Amino acid sequence: MTTPTIEEPHTAEAPKPTKRARRATRIAEAASGGWKVLLFKVIALGIIDAMALYAILVLVQSEQWLIAGIVLAVTAFANWIYFSRGHLPAKYLIPGLIFLFVFQIFAAGYTGYVAFTNYGTGHNSTKDSAINALMLSAQERVPDSPAYQLTIVEQLGELSFLVTDPDGDVRLGGEERPLEPVDNAEMDGGKAVGVPGYNTLSFAQIVADQQRIADMAVPISDDPNDGALRTPDGSVAYAYVSKLVYDEAADTMTDTRTGVVYSDIGTGAFTAPDGTELLPGWQIFVGFDNFVRAFGEESIRGPFFSVLTWTFVFAFLSVFLCFAAGLFLAIVFNDPRMKSKRYYRVIMILPYAFPGFLSALVWAGMMNQEFGFINVVLFGGADIPWLTNEWLAKFSILLVNLWLGFPYMFLICTGALQAIPDELQEAARVDGASAWQVFRNIKLPLLFVAVAPLLIASFAYNFNNFVLIYMLTGGGPRDVSAGVNVGATDILISMVYKVAFVGSTADYGLASAFSIIIFLLVGTISVIAFRRTKALEELV
Amino acid sequence: MSDLKPGAPAARGLLDTVAASDDELTTTTTLTTGGGVRGEGKLPRRRFKRYFRETGWRHLVGIGVAIFAIFPLLYVFSASLNPGGTLLTANGLFSNFNFESYVDLFNSPRHPYGAWYINTLVIGLVTAAGTVLMGALAAYSFSRMRFTGRRVGLTTLLVVQMFPQMLAAVAIFLLMVAIGDIFPALGLNTQIGLIMVYLGGALGVNTYLMYGFFNTVPSSIDEAAKIDGAGHARIFFTIILRLVAPILAVVGLLSFIGTASEFMLASVILIDPDKQTLAVGLYKFVSDEFSKNWSIFAAGAVLAAILPVALFLALQKYIVGGLTAGSVK
Questions:
Q1: B161, B167, B263: which to substitute to probe chain A, counting the most A Cβ within 10 Å?
Q2: Percentages (nearest 5) of helix, strand, coil residues in chain A
Q3: Does residue A477 share a domain with residue A421?
Q4: Which of A144, A192, A429, B317 has its CA 20 to 30 A from that of B122?
Q5: Confidence band (pLDDT; 50, 70, 90) for B30?
């Protein structure tokens, strides 16, 4: 940030003994704030304020009043903190806290909110935009309707239709901006060809932007039932009317061709009496529906519980195996008589230093059933389904995780073993303890105290070890009977990812409900675990 | 663990004492005779047996583990030197020695490896720098200042630390969509957006670790500087930051490595191939053409791994120290 190495004259006098400490602090603070620091402060805050001001303007323009207010309040607060005297802790904490609040705490809260909605494919907007989208998607040209003379104009990158209707009236409108009369248009032979403030598109430009223009639908009026103007060629527009009619009073959609009435029955989509839904629908609160589905619906509950069990088994076995291997190696190598330990150490650390996602991908290649190294070379052309058999896939995941994790445990255990003072050992020996007793009754408890928090952290890490699972098996082999996209080796977090982001349908609501369940599990485990370690610490 | 069988503790203890005294004996003899090799030649079998019981078997274990540890890495390196190789041909280890795949890697328009590499570096470095700065600021205030809410703040950080950001991936994705609607430059499919998301996780993960280290710097140093007229900013930037440099390096490095191999959030937020990171890009590469272009993937993996591995090995001591320091407080 800054390097305030300026040599400034000593303006502050040495504090007299009578002065209060607080006063001394204030003087020291004043003395240290050289003009360079002040300049830096002004410039940095100026840049931030400028960005915030821009953000507020944009937000106001798009009518996001609440967020604009929050941005304004936060910026004002930051300015006040940094320009006022005192509030030292706040000065140091604000930068981190802002990010923490937005992207972690708010995000966690938002997860909770989404978990109680039906947010997902087909339910990702408000009711109004769902109605608009429905009307738009069901549009058909009105038979024998008049042709409107059309000029396409542009302002700030946004295209508009400048239309002259058969009666000679000129109107202007764009996407989501219904037509409005224009009286100062430039006319050319009964057709409006330009309007002040807008650029008229040339033929070449129209050709270049063909697709975008063909997709445009300009509402004729505020009422979506009036239909919209569309153009096939950029020079003539026709009125299109939706085959669906929205009845605002009754809150129903009617298909004018079949006569079926779709009504809003509170499920977030217009639904016909026979149960067919018109999609897109919109986002609504569904209460505990997502949780009820997770625990109640047969096709989700089964896979969910097996994923839950496997998550615990996987995390526990991973920690246990890695720790056992790491401790064993630490004991083996923690012998002063052994030479060239350094070289082993460097080689053993490599798996830990190698980026985890790459390791998983490389192992996935080596474990490939047809071409992989393990089957082709080590097992002489055997056909072992390392990653595609339910149980072997679980074994493979544990094996790869052992490879990834034992170096860490080895380092930790070595450090902890060496930190145990020799005197303890010597004293025990003098008292006649055997090597095993020394290990079992002295070294191991002390070691546990040192590494227990790390084991818990490791458990928590593996509980959410998404990269390994997703890169090695992709959660597969897939459970075909399940109602959600999960497989035998999926853990909770990879299940969340797949429900929300993989495949053609996304169910953010259900995925968030699963996330909340993970939150609760991780929280509970951590609380219990930290209580236990506290107890462990008190033992010594 | 053969020597730690619970069955014969007493014998083992005896043996150890004998071995220890023997050891002293050997060192003295070697010192006086000046050559251990000749001494070993006298009684080869008994010496070897003892050698094996004491340290030899340890070497055997070491060699076994080393093979297990390094084999996949040798395999991927060998595959990368086999241009045009598939998964099957990669099985002939080091049958070829050619760097062509490394050139091909940069010439695929569908898989812009060069762009991924630069993206990863930029995102990783910016995130690491931001994390270190924000974490250090927060740790300094928690360590040196006493204010209302300090305890609550520390506890909150400890709690937040338990919940990795990716648990909220769905919410973060939706949040980024919403931000992108209003500010396209910060929202979905932007690297700045991803960096901001990562910085959101910065405080939670590292402040506690740094806080512990800051506490080990005696506050008499601050007080002395204060008496000499230095303000808090100067104390922090010119004195404290230099004293805690090791932990800054550790946090920066861990943050860089963590960010560079983060997959879940990066895959959700970055959509265009040109904007993606190595983790997302290489995963796509493998799932697109798994066994066909294995050699090119291997080359990409080797290049991607070089930097983190080198950094890790170079700063090994600090990292291990930092990791255990975090546990012992």
A1: B167
A2: 55, 15, 30
A3: yes
A4: B317
A5: very low
